[in-house]
Amino acid sequence: MRSFVADPVSEDLLEHGEGPRWDAVRDELVCVDIMAGAVHRWAFRGGRLAPVRSYVLDRPVGAANPLADGSGWLLAAGTGFVRLDEDGTTTELVDAAPGRGEVLRMNEAVCDPAGRVVAGLMAYDTAPGSGWVVSGDLDGGVRTLIPRTTIANGTAWDSEGTTMFWSDSGEGTLAAFGYDPATGALGARREVLRRDRADGVADGIALDDDGCVWAALWGGRSVLRVNPTGEVLAVVDLPVDQPSAVAFAGTTLLVTTSREGLDASTLAGQPLAGALFAVDVGVSGPPARPFRGELPERLV
C-alpha cells in the first residue's frame, strides 16, 4: 500500500469546505463553504491556491458545477438548484423540496457523463433516512433517484458511465450502482466499503483514470484510494480530523477540509482545519464534468 502526505496550499480557512471541482475551461478550482453560502474560485499556480473571486448566497450551498457553455455554474443551494453567472447574477431554478428549507439542505451534487446532475438532500439534524438523492435531468425535470438516505454525499462515475459510486456518510457506506448513462437509471447496488464513524467514513469522492476511488474520510484524517471491490491501495495522511472531499488537477489530488463542529481545544491542536491541501499521487483524474441540461428560468 502506498502512503502520501498532503500539504496545505491555501491561506484561507473555510468553515466547511466542500465540493471541489477542477474547471478545465477556466483552469481553476471551484469549491464551496456550505453553511456560509459561499462559492470560491481559485487559481492553482506554483503549488499554491490563489483566490480569483468569491460569491455569497443567502442560503447553504452544497456544490457548484460548471455549465457546459462556460457562462457560470449550476449550484445545489438551499433545497434546490440555482444558476450562478460569472458576474454574480443568480437565477432561481428548480426546488427539489418546496417548503422544507428549515429542515433540509443540499449537501452534494455532481454531474454524470451525459451532463445530468445528481444531488443529495439531507436533514440538518442528520436523522437517519430523512434525505434522498435526486437527478436533475437533461430536460430540466427533477426525479428521485435514491430514497431514504441519511447524509447523501460523494458521487462519481467510471469512464464509461456505467457504474456510479456513491457514499452515505451517515451510514458509513460507499456503494456502487449499475448506471445507464443514456437514461440516468440506476441498476443493482453493491457495497464497496463500510466503515465505523469512529474510524472515519467516506465523504466526498473522485475516480482516477485507472478506475479507482479516492475517498475523503470524514473523522479519519486521511483520504483512501480503493479499487472497485474496496481493496485499499493507498492512503493520504492529513493533519486535520475532517477531510471532506477531493478533486483532481492532473495528477494533483486537491482536498477540502472542515472546521465545522470542532471545539476550541480541538482547533488549537489542528490550526489548519478548514484549509485546502494538495499532493501529487502519481495518477491522473478527470476534470469536473459540466452540466448539459436545460435550465428553466423559474422556480417550479
Describe this structure in words.
The structure is a single chain. The chain has 300 residues and is an all-beta fold. It has a single domain, classed as Neuraminidase, CATH 2.120.10.30. 2% of the residues lie in helices and 56% in strands. The protein is built from one helix and 24 strands. The chain has one helix spanning 264-269, and strands at residues 2-5, 7-8, 17-23, 28-33, 38-45, 48-56, 61-66, 72-77, 80-85, 90-95, 104-111, 117-123, 131-136, 142-149, 152-157, 163-168, 173-180, 185-194, 201-207, 213-218, 222-226, 232-237, 243-257, 277-285. The strands form six sheets. The chain has a five-stranded mixed sheet with strand order 1-22-21-20-19, with no helix packed on it. It has a four-stranded antiparallel sheet with strand order 3-4-5-6, with no helix packed on it. It has a four-stranded antiparallel sheet with strand order 7-8-9-10, with no helix packed on it. A hairpin with a 5-residue loop joins β11 (104-111) and β12 (117-123). The longest helix has 6 residues, at 264-269. The protein starts with a strand and ends in a 15-residue tail after the last strand.
